[in-house]
Write a structure and sequence with these properties.
The protein contains 9 helices and no strands. It is 82% helix and 0% strand. α1 runs antiparallel to α2, α1 packs parallel to α3 and α5 crosses α9. By secondary structure, the protein is mostly helical.
Protein backbone atom coordinates (compact mmCIF):
# COMPACT_ATOMS: atom_id res chain seq x y z
CA UNK A 1 0.00 0.00 0.00
CA UNK A 2 2.73 2.46 0.92
CA UNK A 3 4.67 1.97 -2.31
CA UNK A 4 2.11 1.54 -5.12
CA UNK A 5 -1.24 1.32 -3.40
CA UNK A 6 -2.33 4.94 -3.60
CA UNK A 7 -1.92 5.00 -7.39
CA UNK A 8 -3.76 1.70 -7.76
CA UNK A 9 -6.62 2.89 -5.56
CA UNK A 10 -6.90 6.19 -7.45
CA UNK A 11 -6.75 4.39 -10.79
CA UNK A 12 -9.50 1.95 -9.86
CA UNK A 13 -11.71 4.72 -8.43
CA UNK A 14 -11.18 6.72 -11.65
CA UNK A 15 -12.09 3.75 -13.87
CA UNK A 16 -15.19 3.01 -11.80
CA UNK A 17 -16.30 6.66 -12.04
CA UNK A 18 -15.81 6.67 -15.82
CA UNK A 19 -18.34 3.86 -16.04
CA UNK A 20 -16.54 0.65 -15.18
CA UNK A 21 -19.37 -1.43 -13.72
CA UNK A 22 -17.09 -4.27 -12.64
CA UNK A 23 -14.11 -2.19 -11.52
CA UNK A 24 -13.63 -2.51 -7.74
CA UNK A 25 -12.86 1.16 -7.08
CA UNK A 26 -14.88 1.50 -3.90
CA UNK A 27 -13.65 -1.86 -2.62
CA UNK A 28 -10.02 -0.83 -3.12
CA UNK A 29 -10.74 2.47 -1.38
CA UNK A 30 -12.36 0.73 1.61
CA UNK A 31 -9.50 -1.75 1.94
CA UNK A 32 -6.87 1.01 1.65
CA UNK A 33 -8.69 3.08 4.29
CA UNK A 34 -8.88 0.12 6.66
CA UNK A 35 -5.19 -0.64 6.09
CA UNK A 36 -4.32 2.97 6.88
CA UNK A 37 -5.57 2.35 10.42
CA UNK A 38 -2.73 -0.18 10.70
CA UNK A 39 -0.15 2.35 9.46
CA UNK A 40 -0.16 1.05 5.89
CA UNK A 41 -0.73 4.37 4.17
CA UNK A 42 -2.02 7.78 5.18
CA UNK A 43 -5.80 8.12 5.41
CA UNK A 44 -5.73 11.81 4.47
CA UNK A 45 -3.84 11.15 1.23
CA UNK A 46 -6.04 8.15 0.46
CA UNK A 47 -9.16 10.30 0.79
CA UNK A 48 -7.64 13.19 -1.21
CA UNK A 49 -6.57 10.84 -4.02
CA UNK A 50 -9.98 9.18 -4.04
CA UNK A 51 -11.81 12.52 -4.22
CA UNK A 52 -9.59 13.67 -7.10
CA UNK A 53 -9.95 10.38 -8.98
CA UNK A 54 -13.71 10.19 -8.56
CA UNK A 55 -14.20 13.80 -9.69
CA UNK A 56 -11.88 13.32 -12.68
CA UNK A 57 -13.57 10.07 -13.73
CA UNK A 58 -17.05 11.54 -13.41
CA UNK A 59 -16.04 14.60 -15.46
CA UNK A 60 -14.61 12.39 -18.22
CA UNK A 61 -17.87 10.41 -18.24
CA UNK A 62 -19.89 13.66 -18.30
CA UNK A 63 -18.03 14.86 -21.38
CA UNK A 64 -18.66 11.50 -23.02
CA UNK A 65 -22.35 11.72 -22.14
CA UNK A 66 -22.57 15.23 -23.61
CA UNK A 67 -21.09 14.07 -26.91
CA UNK A 68 -23.03 10.77 -27.12
CA UNK A 69 -26.23 11.89 -25.39
CA UNK A 70 -28.54 10.59 -28.10
CA UNK A 71 -28.05 7.05 -26.82
CA UNK A 72 -30.59 7.71 -24.04
CA UNK A 73 -33.47 8.18 -26.45
CA UNK A 74 -32.59 5.02 -28.40
CA UNK A 75 -32.48 2.69 -25.40
CA UNK A 76 -35.84 2.06 -23.68
CA UNK A 77 -34.22 0.93 -20.43
CA UNK A 78 -32.45 4.31 -20.16
CA UNK A 79 -35.60 6.41 -20.59
CA UNK A 80 -36.71 5.94 -16.95
CA UNK A 81 -33.23 6.88 -15.75
CA UNK A 82 -33.35 9.92 -17.99
CA UNK A 83 -36.67 11.01 -16.48
CA UNK A 84 -35.47 10.52 -12.91
CA UNK A 85 -32.20 12.30 -13.67
CA UNK A 86 -33.92 15.29 -15.25
CA UNK A 87 -36.26 15.66 -12.24
CA UNK A 88 -33.72 14.93 -9.49
CA UNK A 89 -30.36 15.65 -11.14
CA UNK A 90 -28.67 17.42 -8.23
CA UNK A 91 -29.93 14.88 -5.67
CA UNK A 92 -28.92 12.03 -7.96
CA UNK A 93 -25.40 13.43 -8.36
CA UNK A 94 -24.99 13.82 -4.61
CA UNK A 95 -26.75 10.77 -3.15
CA UNK A 96 -26.01 8.52 -6.13
CA UNK A 97 -22.36 8.56 -5.13
CA UNK A 98 -23.29 6.24 -2.25
CA UNK A 99 -25.05 3.66 -4.46
CA UNK A 100 -22.56 1.33 -6.20
CA UNK A 101 -24.21 0.75 -9.60
CA UNK A 102 -25.61 4.26 -9.84
CA UNK A 103 -22.19 5.73 -9.02
CA UNK A 104 -20.77 4.31 -12.26
CA UNK A 105 -23.46 5.98 -14.38
CA UNK A 106 -23.63 9.43 -12.80
CA UNK A 107 -21.25 11.22 -15.15
CA UNK A 108 -22.47 10.00 -18.47
CA UNK A 109 -26.14 10.22 -17.48
CA UNK A 110 -25.65 13.82 -16.32
CA UNK A 111 -23.97 14.64 -19.62
CA UNK A 112 -26.54 12.79 -21.72
CA UNK A 113 -29.40 14.51 -19.88
CA UNK A 114 -27.83 17.90 -20.51
CA UNK A 115 -27.34 18.98 -16.90
CA UNK A 116 -25.68 22.39 -16.91
CA UNK A 117 -21.90 22.24 -16.34
CA UNK A 118 -21.69 24.39 -13.23
CA UNK A 119 -24.56 22.54 -11.53
CA UNK A 120 -22.95 19.23 -12.48
CA UNK A 121 -19.58 20.26 -11.05
CA UNK A 122 -20.96 21.67 -7.80
CA UNK A 123 -22.99 18.56 -7.00
CA UNK A 124 -20.33 16.15 -8.24
CA UNK A 125 -17.64 17.75 -6.08
CA UNK A 126 -19.99 17.87 -3.07
CA UNK A 127 -20.97 14.23 -3.55
CA UNK A 128 -17.40 13.00 -4.12
CA UNK A 129 -16.03 14.84 -1.08
CA UNK A 130 -18.87 13.69 1.19
CA UNK A 131 -18.72 10.09 -0.06
CA UNK A 132 -14.93 9.81 0.23
CA UNK A 133 -14.82 11.40 3.69
CA UNK A 134 -17.69 9.29 5.02
CA UNK A 135 -16.62 5.95 3.53
CA UNK A 136 -12.90 6.54 4.11
CA UNK A 137 -13.34 7.61 7.72
CA UNK A 138 -15.79 4.79 8.48
CA UNK A 139 -13.46 2.23 6.89
CA UNK A 140 -10.47 3.62 8.77
CA UNK A 141 -12.19 3.37 12.15
CA UNK A 142 -13.80 0.07 11.26
CA UNK A 143 -10.37 -1.34 10.40
CA UNK A 144 -9.02 -0.08 13.70
CA UNK A 145 -11.97 -1.47 15.66
CA UNK A 146 -11.79 -4.90 14.04
CA UNK A 147 -8.15 -5.26 15.00
CA UNK A 148 -8.63 -4.10 18.60
CA UNK A 149 -12.09 -5.41 19.46
CA UNK A 150 -14.10 -7.83 17.34
CA UNK A 151 -17.37 -6.84 19.08
CA UNK A 152 -16.92 -3.18 18.19
CA UNK A 153 -15.99 -4.22 14.66
CA UNK A 154 -19.15 -6.28 14.28
CA UNK A 155 -21.25 -3.40 15.61
CA UNK A 156 -19.57 -1.03 13.16
CA UNK A 157 -20.31 -3.38 10.26
CA UNK A 158 -23.97 -3.50 11.30
CA UNK A 159 -24.14 0.30 11.55
CA UNK A 160 -22.60 0.70 8.08
CA UNK A 161 -25.01 -1.85 6.60
CA UNK A 162 -27.97 -0.09 8.21
CA UNK A 163 -26.74 3.23 6.82
CA UNK A 164 -26.61 1.77 3.31
CA UNK A 165 -30.12 0.33 3.71
CA UNK A 166 -31.34 3.75 4.88
CA UNK A 167 -29.71 5.44 1.88
CA UNK A 168 -31.29 2.88 -0.45
CA UNK A 169 -34.73 3.53 1.05
CA UNK A 170 -34.20 7.29 0.79
CA UNK A 171 -33.26 6.91 -2.86
CA UNK A 172 -36.37 4.81 -3.54
CA UNK A 173 -38.52 7.39 -1.76
CA UNK A 174 -37.00 10.20 -3.83
CA UNK A 175 -37.65 8.26 -7.03
CA UNK A 176 -41.33 7.89 -6.18
CA UNK A 177 -41.77 11.45 -4.92
Amino acid sequence: MTQYGLGVVAGLVFLEAVGGFFVPGETAFIVASALASQRHGNIVWIIVATVAASIAGTVVAYVGGRTRGGIVSTRPWLRRSDTVFREHGAKALFFGRFIPVLRTTLGWMAGACGIERRRFLVWTVAGCVTWACAVGTASYYLGEAVVHDAGVGAAAVIVVLLAFVALHRLRRRLEHA
